[in-house]
Amino acid sequence: MTATVDPSATAPPDARPLVTVRGLSFHRGERVIFQNVDLDIPRGKITAIMGPSGTGKTTLLRLIGGQLRPDAGRIEVDGACVHELGRRELYQLRKRMSMLFQSGALFTDLSVFDNVAFPLREHTRLPETFIRTLVLMKLEAVGLRGARDLMPSELSGGMARRAALARAIALDPTMIMYDEPFSGQDPITMGVLIKLIRTLNDALGLTSVIVSHDVKETASIADYIYLISEGSVVDHGTPQALERSSSAWVEQFLHALPDGPMSFHYPALPYAQDLSLSKEAALD
Amino acid sequence: MIERLQRLGRLALLSLARLGKATLFLLRLLGALGALGKRPGLMIRQLYSVGVLSLPIIAMSGLFVGMVLGLQGYTNLVDFGATSTLGTVVALSLVRELGPVLAALLYAARAGSALTAEIGLMKTTEQLAAMQMMAVDPFARVFAPRFVAGFIAMPLLAGIFTAIGVLGGYFVAVQQLGVDSGTFWSRMQASVGLVDDIIKGVVVKSVMFGWVANWIAVFEGYDATPTSEGISLATTRTVVNTALAVLVLDFVLTAIFFGV
What we know:
The complex is a heterodimer. By secondary structure, chain A is an alpha/beta fold. In chain A, helix 3 runs parallel beside helix 5 and helix 6 (about 185-205) packs parallel to helix 7 (about 215-220). The model of chain A is unreliable at about 1-10 (pLDDT under 50). Chain A is built from eleven helices and ten strands. Chain B is mainly alpha-helical. Chain B has nine helices and no strands. Chain B has one domain.
């Protein structure tokens, strides 16, 4: 099943989706990760991509970021086909997009301050005093100005993600992709991250893509949700629309039901056969 | 039988594919060297890490290898009344073979394995992916500085190993066993040539070993499976493959430079 949001070729540039995915197929060996997937990421909104673990949500972000190439289909970011760009053009595009990795992916040999300053030092020729001001502004936005001198090993999981978020917004990107931003976080940190993602998105005019399986938290800030499973888009819509969905799968996922269309059991031989029981014994 | 042949063929194909991947990696690495000129600090920091921090083990090993050479040489030569050639034996052994080879093996164990583990861990913790997403090329920022630093450090470490080895030999032969100091040094000076022994031995060999050792170390880190087991295997492969490559290359270079 594919979900198609018709792109309006004649729409003004700002009304067009920032990211369009058409006919995306991707395999890892024999395993199908995506099969003919279509989706759109609208500008200035928070779009969530949700689904069970192992459905390729992170892979989708890596495809959008050009770290992986699709086997078929087309992925466009701001009108540029990501996988057709040369390395130089791709790197230019990446300066306008950012990604918050699940682990934070802070550079372990650099302090929090130097981590946030890293993209500024790499891509600008700003004087150090100006970089200091910018870094402190970004750290203030995520509440970690006082932690600037700490090393990543001294941060809690939530602080590491906030520091990584400060680094992600250092170059004032157009789009941020969040890979499982809430996983493994305590309720307070989760609340902080939810507030930060919403505030930053609105204050900086960002386009945000959140990949997550934390239903409640993600639905609370998402403007639009895509649900993916087994290589295709199962359903999509606003959180309110999905809540009213009649799909058994959507209901199972959104309400965390242990069994349903998505089976509790991994595909296997019949139980009795696996235990080498005779037919009669199995019937008994 | 057919199955064994198939397995052998599959192994050969996989090895060739990996060699091809390593060669492509090297080409891209060489293409990124130009960026180093703008950021020499990155390379200097790595030079400290792989070079300066390797000095203690290189110096200690050189000293003891030289002392052993002095002792063994004396024990064997004294029967023939030829202890006057001890300086030559110690120096030529170190300059032509033991200096560059042992320094390379020690380098692989101390610095090469650390390079692989560091890069592998950066890959596992998504630091390399994060760098790419920040439009920073890890080849220019991470791999090239480490490769060049190791390449520069290797001949220097081999030279230090050799020099300290000669001093170790001198200490045992002259200070402990009573070989004449003037004879020890003069015979060494007369028999060790600058080009034929020092350049072809220590310099050329260690430059080649440095190239191979650092290529293997950086590539194994880059190619490591991003799990703890993957890093462990990659680190082991670095040490084993470097040791094998250095010994095979040493034979080839010895045959070219010193063969009949």
